[in-house]
Amino acid sequence: MSFLSKTAKPETGFESFYGTNIAGSQVATSEMNEEEMPASNAYRYIKDELLMDGTPALNLASFVTTYMEEEAEKLMMENLSKNFIDVEGESACGEIETRCVNIIARLFHAPEENGKCQALGVSTIGSSEAIILSVLAAKRRWQHMRKAAGKPYDKPNLVMNSAVQVCWEKAARYLEVEEKYWYCKDNEFAANPQELIDLVDENTILVCAILGTTYTGQYEDVKEIDRLLGEKNKAEGLSVYIHVDGASGGFVAPFANPDLEWDFRLPHVCSINASGHKYGLTYAGVGWAIWRNKSFLPDDILFTVNYLGSPQVSFTLNFSKSGVHVIGQYYQFLRLGKAGYRNIMTNLTNTSDWLAEKIASIEGSNGVTKFEILGDNLGGSGLPLVAWKLKNKEDYDEYAVARTLRSRGWIVPAYTMAPHAETLKLLRVVVREDFSLQRATTFLRDLLDTIQILDKAPASVHEYQKLVHKEATQAKAEASSKHTDVDDSHSLQGKHGKTHGIC
Amino acid sequence: MALSRHIKPEHLLQESQDKKSHLHALTKTDSNKIVHSYASRYGTAPIPKYHIPSKGTSADSAYQIIHDELSLDGTPLLNLASFVHTYMNPACDKLMHENMSKNLIDQDEYPMTQIIHERCISILADLWHAPSTHQAIGTATTGSSEAIQLGGLAMKRIWQEKRKAAGKSIHEPGPNIVMGANAQVALEKFARYFEVECRLVPISVESKYRLDPKKAMEYVDENTIGVYVILGSTYTGHYEPVKEMSDLLDEYEKKTGIFVPIHVDGASGAFVAPFATPKLEWDFKLPRVVSINTSGHKFGLVYVGVGWIIWRDKAHLPKDLIFELHYLGSVEYSFSLNFSRPAAPIIAQYFNLLHLGFEGYRAIALDDFKNARLLSRALEKSGYFYVLSDIHRSLEGLVNTAKVASGYDQEDIESYQPGLPVVAFRFSDDFQAEYPDIQQKWIQTLLRAKGWIVPNYELAPDLEKVEILRVVVRENMAEALIDKLICDLMEITEDLCKKDSPTHSLDILGHHLTSHRKHQGKMEKGSGTGNTCGDKNSGTYAKAC
């Protein structure tokens, strides 16, 4: 229904927004309004509606950057109208991408020959695009190899931990590659290298190693995976390589734990992705994919795009896109340098260690510690995040803790563990750049309060909590009414009820 | 974007730097500690290009350096090569700035952003006459490329399911998709990446440089997952005839029982046709159209970073492509190639839908067309140029109608051939005969020197010998700019005609220089990529869009 149909009085154009007809009627939400409205009114209307969104800084669920310096924001605002792919008009953007790719490739120790870096890379919207591209490249490389050897090439598979981010499932499904999973156990959430490599066979196009699972933040032992894969390749005459999903860890490990070998220093790592918008410290909208050298990017998936007579090579799923995020990424490289990133990552690691220690030592009224920390991320050996669960059986569960924290403004996700360990519920706090020790202290205070409240609450409150949780889950599903009958039997979610950590 | 690899054009600069200690000789100051941007370290020292510097710099300096470097970019306003929108109302700029740190996919945290996303889908489904806006289903994408690939993927999966159900092979022979040779690169990418045979229908002058539906039928068979019909060829702006294609496929279905769906690539046109020519039949009114994509950042009038795809109903989006994600207290459904992404462009799209309304969008579209007609007529009247686009030509048959006799309204958009507000032109035959040695691409270079970006490129395969210049008349290409562009074009062309003019010799030099510069920072020529795919396999050339 158009708001105009309710017009009660002619407008003069001088009313305060709240005196206009728009403020006094419902705006059409499923069809266009017939007539225009002043820009300032449209602004106010949308701004007010967006007040319902959460506060990004209090969102401890997400890895995605929520703070950038004003200077960076200004730079990004100035360039909002620039189209990244338009090299003729916007050639400086392309130059900046080249620099970023070089900087990142070197950060990941891309091999050099004759002083020349052999790596290739590309900016993406995020790690999902980067991962789909990497799987596509690996699939095509494998197909060519099999064709050349006169062997069948219709059953490619991917070997990975079932704790992977959903984009790996997507990549496999959309590109028609079989998924071979290593499943989490109740006490083991990072892939066991030997068991992972045992899944590899002649049809394996790629082994995925996760640098920082989204569940517990642990780094998988890429070095050991690499060693075992090398042995297997040799023994069975295979040519299988590793892709490191460094969505979060790619920009943490090089600074917080520079001696950890997980990148191109290992001979079987063929490609790496990292999200610029996570610990790369840029706003949502930029990821990176880097390949070891050109032999891992078959020619037939590259497109030469003829821009105004100058051919240029393209390998992306998106075409026109905003250039501001790549600019923001370069700003951070220039602004922070290694020292700046190291300072930030060190702070985050310390805050995360501190928080883990404090949470582990929280005691109930009976003097027994309440929580158990999951994974081992201390001292930069994993992502700066804290995942924990209730140690003992209580009248309430992790969902109730999350819900109570939420009433104080904190968004802390509670979820179940990856398939085969899904009876495990956990809570997770991601320590991002803007989560200072002071903020962590405030959070801890609220967590302590939460526990006290829940401990004292009568049973009826807990019953109520469970009911609310159940109804909220159902209500959300129904709210997305357009899809309620989705048949999800194909995914890990459908088969195992896998929940996904927000990232 | 472009695949990049290490380059070393800076050796010369490195060797030419002053050799000195880090301290200024006289004052013994440390340039790291100077606050003023231009006097700080990077005033004279080379900026880090390929390594992350070990020490950072102040926010001011970092801002200033990058800001200055980016000022070498062309002016978005004068970039007539691109369909991508470059202006938004300052109120919307402000809104986008406020929401810059929001992540679209984080539905649990940003529920209102999600509701706004849903509203945009409903509004577009309604605009495109989906049988029921409650049944239609869709998603925002980063741009039309992602949307087209999702559309293709859905059609492929439906075809596979049908084949499997009929007990037929999905591999021998595999699936194919039919499209005009004028297709944008994303359409072809879909075919290549998702292993569908790409059947390009040749174009001709008679087919108006775009898909010829009758010819397309020769390429359709039982393994055709669908036909991509482009509403607004990026080459010349001609709409491909969706209705005619649909009718022919109806006949085909009657004869053979095979249902071949249509996906309309309305990257540009889906935000033009509903407003400028609402009577044109191209959308979900035709039952065969199963999905439509568009770019919010073209005639949706939003900054770059938003596209849309809508399926007419759930039945045309196979369930097994959708992923159900369970988060804290919420269930989400996802079908996309990107995951985390900025929410600001979606908010901006809603701002425009609300701010402009139908009338606003229509007024802008009509202005675009009026200015495009002005440019087209002026070019043709000069005698130097022939205009390939047809939006300034009246509908066939209209000339003899009573309307003309009574002096028909030249401003009436309905009396012209529908298309995108794009002007594609080339040297007229007479001009070419008279000045055979003048190359059309020189115009591009000379216009660039004046600040205009007007691309000169070859038409799609089969007509690749024809070179065209193309101007996209966007909202901000107002009459004043058309006026200036015409003046500059005439001046340049006339200068070129004079054999003794400096323009002639200067240009040859200029063109040489630009083509040399472009290879910097890109993958080296002949590094095995360009030759194999671009020239041999790939039929189409992408245009800036």
UniProtKB/TrEMBL annotation, chain A:
Residues 472-490 have a biased composition (Basic and acidic residues). The modification N6-(pyridoxal phosphate)lysine is found at K278. It holds the Pfam family Pyridoxal_deC. It is an enzyme of class 4 (lyase). Coiled coil: none annotated. Keywords: Decarboxylase, Lyase, Pyridoxal phosphate. GO terms for cellular component: cytosol. One of its GO terms (biological process) is L-glutamate catabolic process. Residues 493-503 have a biased composition (Basic residues). It comes from the Eukaryota. Its cofactor is pyridoxal 5'-phosphate. GO terms for molecular function: glutamate decarboxylase activity; pyridoxal phosphate binding. It catalyses: L-glutamate + H(+) = 4-aminobutanoate + CO2. Belongs to the group II decarboxylase family. NCBIfam families: Glu-decarb-GAD. This is Glutamate decarboxylase. It comes from Piloderma croceum (strain F 1598). The lineage of its organism: Eukaryota, Fungi, Dikarya, Basidiomycota, Agaricomycotina.
Automatic annotation (TrEMBL), chain B:
One of its GO terms (molecular function) is glutamate decarboxylase activity. This is Glutamate decarboxylase. One of its GO terms (biological process) is L-glutamate catabolic process. InterPro entries: Glutamate_decarboxylase, PyrdxlP-dep_de-COase, PyrdxlP-dep_Trfase, PyrdxlP-dep_Trfase_major. Keywords: Decarboxylase, Lyase, Pyridoxal phosphate. It comes from Piloderma croceum (strain F 1598). SUPFAM superfamilies: PLP-dependent transferases. The modification N6-(pyridoxal phosphate)lysine is found at K298. Its cofactor is pyridoxal 5'-phosphate.
